[in-house]
Amino acid sequence: MRFSQLVAKLGAVAVDLGSDPDISGVSAIETARPQTMSYIEGDKFAAQIATTAASALVLPQDPSLQAQASERGLAWIADPEPRKVFAQIIALFYQPFRLPAGVHPTAVIDPSVQLGNDVAIGAHVVIAAGVTLGDQVCIHPNVVIYPDVHIGDRTVLHANCTIHERTQIGADCVIHSGAVIGAEGFGFVPTSEGWLKMQQSGYVVLADGVEVGCNSTIDRPALDTTRIGRNTKIDNLVHIAHGCRLGENCILAGQVGLAGAVEVGNRVIMAGQVGIVDHVKIGDGAIASAKAGVHSDVEPGAIVTGVPAIPHKLFVKATAIFNRLPEMYQSLRQIQKQLGIERK
Amino acid sequence: MRFSQLVAKLGAVAVDLGSDPDISGVSAIETARPQTMSYIEGDKFAAQIATTAASALVLPQDPSLQAQASERGLAWIADPEPRKVFAQIIALFYQPFRLPAGVHPTAVIDPSVQLGNDVAIGAHVVIAAGVTLGDQVCIHPNVVIYPDVHIGDRTVLHANCTIHERTQIGADCVIHSGAVIGAEGFGFVPTSEGWLKMQQSGYVVLADGVEVGCNSTIDRPALDTTRIGRNTKIDNLVHIAHGCRLGENCILAGQVGLAGAVEVGNRVIMAGQVGIVDHVKIGDGAIASAKAGVHSDVEPGAIVTGVPAIPHKLFVKATAIFNRLPEMYQSLRQIQKQLGIERK
Amino acid sequence: MRFSQLVAKLGAVAVDLGSDPDISGVSAIETARPQTMSYIEGDKFAAQIATTAASALVLPQDPSLQAQASERGLAWIADPEPRKVFAQIIALFYQPFRLPAGVHPTAVIDPSVQLGNDVAIGAHVVIAAGVTLGDQVCIHPNVVIYPDVHIGDRTVLHANCTIHERTQIGADCVIHSGAVIGAEGFGFVPTSEGWLKMQQSGYVVLADGVEVGCNSTIDRPALDTTRIGRNTKIDNLVHIAHGCRLGENCILAGQVGLAGAVEVGNRVIMAGQVGIVDHVKIGDGAIASAKAGVHSDVEPGAIVTGVPAIPHKLFVKATAIFNRLPEMYQSLRQIQKQLGIERK
């Protein structure tokens, strides 16, 4: 499509149509091809404006970058949120693969299952009794759904994922390949004869707009529910144990692990490989840095780092000095010697 | 069932039948419904006795809590191990979904496979040559079993898990969805031409009563076996490398990782995200705290924490002072100044 | 086969044929059986020479060990790289299970798929439109391949793994059970209305000889590619985020996690549970120790440890003193008291 047509679909703040090039796709700035649109967020890639083969750019609101692009005859669109605009442009050119509506003849679907309109069910999918699927649900091949699950409108289940009994999944969710939702929580009671299983009679609830990454696992509890709030996004290989409650719009990066009954507010961010001890409460808007081990409650808005996690600023200071411990130790010994203090 | 009938099935220490209510299920104390039974373990939830809608409670051996419950006319049962009793009560009302006995027509089973009595095999299961299944084995849909595997009586394999060649699984085991047992260990020999694969000719042995969590992986070794002892319970996303030997009644929480040839005694507990370096030995009853990185052998009964892991008490003390490092550093500089010591 | 025949297949430096025993397999030194060949790498297992039931041994170039073996009448072969030789010997006796060539009738394969010669496709495999498979590709049961994937000659896909759209896999690769290659990267743009998905229009490229462990995940990026270089070996439960570029002959141990756009050179080694922050560059031949959290670029050949990762030698020194922090703190207080310095 012409750049001017593309621009008309967006609400950009500033535009230079240049020669109004034909745009056929998107590309990375370093490896861009002609007739594609690329993206420069900040100063880091500014030098690329002089050399990129892209025909059009998304720019930040920076008159100097815009002037450079115009000088080279490049078309551009500028916005205070260039990344958001570029995401919208990618979506104009690219949508992930979806199955066409219809039920593949090799799928094994219990007669009691209720299907919405325009449902797509792939090969070798297995759906047990009492399941209900909303409209336009898309289930890729080899997915297994246990009994009495509900899946909301437009939700996508990718290949080889497993949804366990009684799980309630909202609308517009994406469950990525290999994820397991609603399996029984890890509940064992120590007794004199060894570990006694506590049956997990609860279930998992995912609100609308939740995404669960590849091979991530969300377990159901002994009683009541494990809940993930609206629009919370969970990356790959994350483990969420039984009875956790997560709020809305949280981000959990890869390999995060939450022990049982953790309570997480809204807009919380957990970076990669964070671990949260059971029953800990994390306030709204808090951030746990990569690899943090959170052993106690975190205040709303706090940023915590380290194992056990402490305020981020304190961690940075203490860590800087950790690296000087050998030197400090020597200094201390020297002082003790000078003062005639006996070493233990 | 009547509360009095329920009590008759258990060996409780103290009971107040109240009005002998009809109990139809279990519920969490905060969200309990009438005609359900709920559970109060300790002081933390004691205040709920005054308000809960549950008709009956499991209580600890605490006369004060018992008196409060009796005053409200609630039925209760008390025990020194209330959690164990509550687990038994849940199991009276709830059992996880099992497939009915029989072989689904879409399962692909090699003619050489030996099936026990009352085996349940779900849709799209694939079982290769030389496999033997004990009585009442339950295999959920889309499981794949490679050749020459043995699976003991009453063991359950959940959907989408994979059992590799020659794996020996005992009786009463549960392998959760997506777990992979017996895949080849990560064995590569550095050579001048790059990494040379060392074929993994051994196999994995799980003793009776072992559980393996969702998407966990237990690899087979180059020679001999990887062994998991009786009643050891493994949570989700755990990695156990080739040649490890685990004892009985161990607990491995989510995302634990064991490198090659780790030896673990009986009743060892590893909290979430623990990592154990190859060839390390962990003594009976030892505990590794969450996120510990264990680089050297651990004595029986020891509790270790940190990376590298040290005795837990020392870790707690050292960590408390870690947080005061900036202050210590300033103090040291002040002393040096006062003593006229030159800073390096 | 006779030991002399076996030796003829290898390029060993020194040999004692002993009684030229018949060798029917390999075994671990501690649990060896007669007529098997076993392996002693270093001093640690030297005592086993006196007692092992093995009929033949691989030894290092150590005249003393060789003399001991000859005295017991054991056949042996010695080499400066005994582990490499033993790997070659295992491969003479053992090869992992492979499916026979042919397409199982339950596989669902789009008519547009191009199959090479002697391809083996197992039961319930699903292959979408536009996929091409090289010669002797082996696809185990219940694998799902999305559209437009290419898989090179002799590559093996194990059961229940999932290959997403447009992924390009080279020759002689192994994708282990449950791995997910090419799923969409975790790309969300913060906006005032919440998280906006950035569609991931790129794809994943695995060069020849790459191995990906069980339940590991490698995501595709918004633009361009995620790339894994030739002969790089990746263990179980590893997460590689969108846009990472890995060089050749790297080793990533279990549960390693790479955030987005990490650049890794050749021959880099990451031990278990290492995490790398987004956009970090790791130089050729660098090593990240177990559980390291790498927040900034690493020089070629460097060894880094800790969170945040620092040079390994410094980490070892500082950690040793970390354990003495309680004692240092007391010393400091004593000095302050002696000097009459007020405590804050």
Catalogue the unreliable spans of chain A: none
Q: What does the main sheet of chain A amount to?
A: 12 strands, mixed
| Widest beta sheet: strand line-up of chain A | 6-9-12-15-18-23-26-29-32-35-37-38
Q: What would you say the CATH architecture of the largest domain in chain A is?
A: 3 Solenoid
Radius of gyration of chain A: 26 Å
The fraction of residues in strands of chain A falls at 25-35%
Give me the secondary-structure category of chain A. alpha/beta
Globally, the shape of chain A reads flat
N- and C-termini, Cα separation of chain A: 79 Å
Structure description:
Three copies of one chain form a homotrimer. In chain A, the strands form five sheets. The first copy, chain A, has a twelve-stranded mixed β-sheet with strand order 6-9-12-15-18-23-26-29-32-35-37-38. Chain A has three domains: 3-93, Udp-n-acetylmuramoylalanyl-d-glutamate--2,6- Diaminopimelate Ligase, Chain: A, domain 1 (3-Layer(aba) Sandwich); 161-308, Hexapeptide repeat proteins (UDP N-Acetylglucosamine Acyltransferase, domain 1), CATH 2.160.10; 312-344. The first copy, chain A, has five helices and 38 strands. The first copy, chain A, is an alpha/beta fold and 344 residues long. The first copy, chain A, is flat, with a radius of gyration of 26 Å. The first copy, chain A, starts with a helix and ends in a 6-residue tail after the last helix. Chains in contact: A-B, A-C, B-C. Chains A and C meet through strand 2, helix 3 and helix 5 of A and strand 19, strand 20, strand 21, helix 4 and helix 5 of C.
